[in-house]
Amino acid sequence: MPRAAFTTLGCKVNQYETQRILESFEDAGFSVVPFDSPADVYVVNTCSVTAVAESKSRYTVRRALRSNPKAKVVVTGCAAQMALNERRAFPEAHLLVPNPEKMRTVEHVLRAFPGLGAGLRPRPRSAKTPGSAWKGRTRATIKIQEGCNVFCSYCSIPFTRPHMVSRPAAEILGEVDRLVQMGYKEVVLSGVLIGAYGPDTGSGGPHFEDLIELMADTPGLERIRISSIEMRHVTFRLMNLMASGLVVPHLHLPLQSGSDGVLRDMNRPYTSREFLDLLDLLRAVVPDLLVTTDVMVGFPTETPERFEESLRTVEQASFLKAHVFRFSPRPGTKADVWGDAVAAEEKQRRSQLLMEVAGRTGEAEAARFLGRSLRVLVEGKCPKTGLMAGLSDNYLEVRFAGPAELARRVCTVAAMEVRDGVVYGELATPGGSSGSSDDLIRVAAL
Ligand code: SF4
Question: Can you give the residue range of the structural domain that contains 81?
Answer without folding.
Answer: 3-117
